[in-house]
Amino acid sequence: MQPSAQAASHQVPMDLCAALDAAVNAAHAGAAILQSYAHHRADLVIDRKARNDLVSQADREAEAAVIEVLRERTPQYGIVAEETGGKVEGEATWYIDPLDGTTNFLHGIPHYAVSIALIARAGAKVDGGAPLAADTPVVGVVYDPCREELFNAIHGVGAWLNGHRIACSRTPSLDDAVLATGFPFRDFSFAQQYMPTLHDAINQTRGVRRLGAAALDLAWTAAGRYDGYWEMGLAPWDVAAGTVIVREAGGVAEDMHGVDSWPIGGYVVSGNKDIAAALKAMIAPHLVRKTAG
Questions:
Q1: Fewest beta carbons within 10 Å, which of 8, 56, 141, 243?
Q2: Does the keyword Ribonucleoprotein feature in the UniProt annotation (predicted)?
C-alpha cells in the first residue's frame, strides 16, 4: 500500500549530515585496506570477472570494511556494492565502489579512489521541504588515498575538497576546454557510438584526458580541473557519488539519454552548464537513443 499524501507530509527528513559522516568514515576504512596492499600488489590474488574486468582481495576486503561501517551507522538504508551486490530498499540506498580504478591500482598507477553515494528514493524528504520528485543522489564521497584528497557533497548544501568549497570551472566553450573521458575497455557494444564522440572532442577542444577512474573524473570536474567529462558503459556505483559532487559544485551531471534522473545506466555527461550543454550537442548525433521503460 502506498503511503498517503498526508503521511508523506509528516515524514521525518533524512539526516544527511549523519549519512555523510558515516560515508567519510567508511571511505577511510576502505582506503586503509587498499593502501595496506598497495606496496604488495604482486602478492594479490586476482580474479577475472570478464575481459579486462579484474577483482582482487583488496577490492573485496575494502568493500567489506565499507559495508561494516555503513551497516553499523546507517542500518536503515539499503546497500548496492560492486563486488557483493545487494538491493535497493528503504527510503535510500548506498552505492559503493570500494576501488574505482582497479586496473590502475594493480599496475601501480597512483590514481584510484573509494566511491560511496547515498541515493534517496522518490518521495523521500531530505531537507524539510517537499518530498523528492525522483530518485536523487543526496550524499557523495570520493576519497583518493594517494593524494589524500577527500571530495564530498550533500544535496542542496554544497561540495567540498578537504573541507574547502569547490566549484566547476567557468570555461565557456569547448574550444578552451579540457575534457575527461573513458574508452570502452570491457563492453565494446557501444564503441560505434563512442568513437565518433572522441574524434569530435579531439578536434574541438583544448585536450582530452583518460586517467581510468570515473569517480575521480567526476570529482575533478567538480573541482574545476576538468571542464567536462563524458563516458559510456559504466556501472551505477561508478558515477553515483561523483554525480552529486558535480551538481553541488554548480555543474551538470546527467544521464546522456535524458531518461533517468541520474546516470544510473552508466551513460554520463557532465561539466559546467555551458560545457555540459555543448558536450550533449556534440554527442547527440552519434547516440543511439534509449527510451524510458
A1: 8
A2: no
- For residue 112, is it within any domain? yes
Q: Tally the residues of the chain.
A: 293
Which residues neighbour 1 within 8 Å (Cβ) at sequence distance 6 or greater?
Answer: none
Does this model's pTM top 0.85?
yes
- Bridge partners, 139 (sequence order): 118, 154
Same domain assignment for residues 226 and 273: yes
Phi, psi (rounded to 5 degrees) for 137: -65, 125
* d(C-alpha 116, C-alpha 195), whole Å: 30
Using one digit for the tens of pLDDT, what is the confidence trace for 106-141?
889 999 999 999 999 999 998 777 899 999 999 999
Binding positions for Mg(2+) are 82, 97, 99-100, 238
Q: Alpha-carbon distance 272 to 278, whole Å? A: 10
- Gap between the Cα atoms of 186 and 238, Å rounded: 14
How far apart are the C-alpha atoms of 220 and 203, rounded to whole Å? 22
* Burial state string for 78-101 with b = 16 or more CB within 10 A and e = fewer than 16: bbbbbbeeeeeeebbbbbbbbbbb
CA 198 – CA 145 distance, rounded (Å): 30
Q: What is the rounded radius of gyration, in angstroms, for the C-alpha atoms of the chain?
A: 18
State the CATH number of the domain containing residue 211.
3.40.190.80
Binding site members: 82, 97, 99-100, 238
pLDDT tens digits along 79-110: 999 888 888 989 999 999 999 998 899 889 99
